[in-house]
Specification:
The complex is a heterotrimer of chains A (282), B (307) and C (238). Chain A is an all-alpha fold and 282 residues long. Chain A contains 11 helices and 2 strands. Chain A has a single domain, classed as ABC transporter involved in vitamin B12 uptake, BtuC (Orthogonal Bundle), CATH 1.10.3470. Classes of the chains: A mainly alpha (282), B mainly alpha (307), C alpha/beta (238). Chains in contact: A-B, A-C.
Chain lengths: 282, 307, 238
């Protein structure tokens, strides 16, 4: 029983790291980013290539953050800034971005599966063996969540970002450069996703098309917990991990994602804002 | 909003395409394939147009309908030995059923949420089918190789004609047209004005879905095989959206232009570098949304048309 | 006497619909000027155009000798103009204190001083400083908006229907506050639907109808004008 709980903890934490960026961007800029999976993939690729140069994959995180931040700034300026008022347009544009990034990476880096090998020992925890890698991933994921939370609550920039999220008019009237904050938020969201990408690269085989599936997964989690709600994303991540473990236990491992996706559709139908949606914890 | 005049143009073009069936097999080279794919993509875009052009709802999970149609077609042919046209009818029927589910969704949730919900459904279907042995699980099924390009051409054309006709009839019906225009413009206000929004949305959804599923069957006939990841591939949605958007939602010529452009890109990118197609697809979506929000055809019409 | 704000032949609006057409007005330094007119006349649009939120299609806006039309809102606000809008613009999930800090975020060094000043004027806000803004009553929210506006020590306050939705004694109190604040060297442009409120506080009045100025002059003269008595005094009073 305990091993299942540990599993939910480890998986849930990991899920936080891959969905926090998506939620951040939506909560502040109202942009629904379908290219989210590709950013994760790029983060994973960065981790891979740097690790082949001898760097410890965990140490690639700051670099991934920097590069994805830059990527976020560029993509916001080119693909989103001018159409940011129209929800459907940003949706379609982000879909286009998804395919563009996917193919560029495919052309430049090839379609083969790349694996980061990090032979770390397993540590014993109440009689169960837990891979140190996964434990580190969970810790980093949770640390990211906590740091982001404090950044938003305590820093002046965080305050400004929350202001833009809560009232664009209000933010304009107090002299905040709303567009600059949106750009920054977008880039920070990419950066957070860059962290998740590295972590993802440690768990899965990396290839240019891995984005599609993880994107849907992240969307499920974020919408489940409520688009825009920070706390909702965290809850959503753990609930998801829980549902998956339950499905493995009761049904058949092959159905975990099917069940999960159906749950999403159900949540959307029953309460379209998700569990904590509509309420901004930002 | 389709001007009634453009229907006349549509009829002329469709008649021309119909005549082409007599010569299609004797034309050498790539042209027949290109033409067939154009018709196919145009039919797909036109089916989407019925839904999106009328109501503004964009079902991102379109490939759910496509895949369902494809699978029903394959099952009908392989497991029940039905002839082609019967199998296609069944594809259409499953389309009606599946899209009525979408229609139901549309009455509950709107805009982006609707788009994402349909996407989630499509994705879950893929996983369900992978685990279903009856349809061959992950390996899918193979159809007997009775392939004629002519079949593909005729079937695609058939669906295109039906789809265009449906769109025409929808637009012709005054009450329906106004209701749909109101929904597209501002649904909340439409509701307040007492317009029944549920029924028109539902109707266009199932009509569009009917054709999308049939096209799924047509595609499987052309490809002679089916697997879950092949059938429920979101690329079909992206192509349909791309063709529809780029060409111009609401006008037959626009949709045809979009279908043509994408068919050309698809065919010629195979020669250069297969992946180029996806790249161009992606870029075209971004460019369309920024520079040609009403579609390329409308843009060209403004620039070079009536002076 | 120098004008802190000069608006010359301003036309502004959304796309094809120019709500405001060729409007000219001046706000002398250290003075209070009012704009009155019926709903939909374009009063709010003028306010928003001055601050840069609504696009200007022709004309000029000169603040303190500088042309500001065409600048971005945050740049204009930095120059010393504040718009207190009647539209919801508080940050609901943030505390009163956080809302005020954001008000003063352009001048980080002065935040603590400005806070003390603002709490002195509106003691009730100090009482509620750790409460979330969405829990405040309508009147308290208005106070918060005014207080937030004051956090930047503006030279010009544009008050757009700040008494909207307030009970009469609250409205009176709000405008009393405003005239107190104006005594300290701040200029005010008051926009009001309720004629009497504007007449009481302003020295000069402009009357706006259908996007154009139809009457202007010192308040006591405009108040006696037959147009005002026959058309507006029904709306007047508190």
């Amino acid at each position: 029983m305990l091993d299942r709980i540990i599993e939910v903890f480890l998986l849930g934490s990991f899920y936080c790291s891959i969905s926090i960026g998506l939620n951040f961007i939506f909560g502040i800029t109202k942009i629904i980013n379908f290219a989210h999976g590709e950013i994760l993939m790029i983060g994973a690729m960065i981790a891979y290539y740097l690790s082949t140069c001898g760097m410890n994959p965990f140490l690639t995180i700051p670099i991934s953050m920097l590069l994805t931040f830059a990527l976020g700034s560029i993509t916001y300026k080119t693909a989103f800034e001018k159409i940011s008022q129209n929800e459907m347009s940003t949706l379609i544009s982000s879909m286009g971005l998804s395919y563009t990034l996917m193919t560029i990476v495919r052309i430049l880096l090839g379609a083969g599966y790349k694996i980061i090998s990090l032979p770390l020992p397993s540590i014993s925890f109440f009689g169960y063996y837990v891979s140190l890698t996964r434990l580190m991933i969970a810790i980093i994921a949770l640390a990211t969540v906590i740091i982001t939370h404090f950044f938003l609550k305590k820093s002046l920039l965080g305050l400004k970002i929350r202001a833009v999220a809560q009232s664009t008019l209000g933010a304009t009237l107090v002299g905040i450069d709303v567009n600059k904050i949106r750009l920054l938020s977008f880039a920070i969201g990419f950066s957070l996703t860059g962290i998740g990408g590295v972590l993802m690269g440690l768990l899965f085989a990396i290839h240019p098309y891995m984005g599609g599936f993880t994107c849907t997964l992240a969307f499920l989690i974020v919408i489940f917990g409520g688009l825009g709600s920070f706390l909702g994303t965290i809850i959503g991540s753990f609930v998801f991990a829980f549902i998956q473990q339950l499905t493995i236990l009761i049904l058949n491992p092959g159905y975990t994602y099917a069940v999960a996706f159906i749950c999403l559709a159900a949540v959307l139908i029953l309460r379209k804002e998700g569990i904590l949606g509509g309420k901004f914890a930002l | 909003m389709m001007k009634l005049k453009s229907f006349h143009i549509a009829i002329i073009l469709l008649f021309f395409f119909f005549l082409m069936t007599l010569w299609i097999e004797s034309i050498p080279g790539y042209l027949p394939v290109l033409l067939s794919e154009t018709i196919f993509l145009t039919a797909l875009a036109m089916s989407l147009n019925i839904i999106t052009g009328s109501t503004g709802y964009l079902p991102f999970g379109l490939h759910f309908l496509f895949g369902m149609g494809g699978y029903v077609y394959a099952i009908s042919i392989i497991k029940f030995g039905l002839p082609v046209y019967f199998a296609l009818i069944f594809s259409g029927l499953i389309g009606l059923l599946s899209s009525s589910f979408f229609g139901f969704l549309a009455s509950k949730i709107k805009g982006a949420y609707f788009a994402i919900a349909t996407l989630a459904i499509a994705e879950s279907m893929r996983y369900i089918f992978v685990n279903w042995d009856y349809v061959g699980g992950g390996y899918g099924m193979t159809l007997p190789p009775v392939f004629h390009l002519l079949d593909f051409y005729i079937l695609s054309l058939l669906v295109l004609v039906l789809a265009t006709l449906s769109f025409y009839l929808i637009q012709k019906n005054e009450k329906l047209r106004i209701a749909l225009a109101a929904i597209k413009e501002n649904e909340e206000v439409a509701k307040i004005c007492g317009i029944n929004v549920t029924w028109p949305k539902f109707m266009v959804m199932i009509i569009g879905g009917l054709f999308i599923s049939m096209l799924g069957g047509v595609w499987v006939h052309y490809q002679t095989y089916i697997t879950p990841s092949f059938a429920f591939n979101e690329m079909y949605t992206v192509i349909a959206v791309g063709a529809c958007l780029l060409g111009g939602i609401g006008s037959f010529q626009g949709v045809l232009l979009g279908g043509l452009i994408f068919a050309i890109i698809r065919e010629y990118s195979w020669l250069i570098f297969p992946e180029i197609f996806l790249l161009v697809l992606g870029l075209s979506l971004i460019i369309t949304v920024h520079f040609f929000p009403d579609g390329l055809f409308h843009y060209l019409e403004q620039k070079f048309g009536k002076r | 006497m120098k004008n802190i704000l000069e608006v010359k032949n301003l036309s502004a609006g959304y796309g094809e619909i120019q709500v405001v057409r060729k409007v000219s007005l001046n706000v002398p330094d250290n003075d209070i000027v009012g704009i009155i007119g019926p709903n939909g006349a374009g009063k709010s649009t003028i306010a928003k155009a001055i601050v840069g939120i609504v696009p200007i299609s022709e004309g000029e806006v000169i603040f303190n000798g500088e042309r500001i039309n065409g600048l971005k809102p945050h740049e204009i606000i930095k120059k010393g103009i504040i718009l207190i809008s009647s539209e919801p613009s508080i940050f609901p999930k943030m505390t009163v204190r956080e809302n005020l800090i954001l008000g003063g975020q352009l001048y980080k060094n002065k935040i603590e001083d400005n806070l003390k000043n603002v709490f002195r004027i509106f003691p009730i806000l100090e009482e509620r400083k750790d409460q979330r803004a969405e829990t405040l009553s309508g009147g308290e929210r208005q106070m918060l908006l005014i207080a937030r506006g004051l956090m930047t020590n503006p030279r010009l306050i544009i008050a757009d229907e700040i008494s909207a939705g307030l009970a009469p004694q609250f409205a009176r109190f709000t405008y009393q506050m405003l005239s107190e604040i104006a005594k300290n060297g701040v200029s005010v442009l008051v926009i009001e639907q309720y004629v009497q409120r504007a007449l009481d506080i302003s020295n000069t009045i402009y009357v706006l109808e259908n996007g154009s100025i139809v009457l202007e002059g010192p308040s006591h003269e405009v108040a006696k004008h037959p147009k005002i008595s026959e058309v507006y005094l029904g709306l007047g009073g508190y």
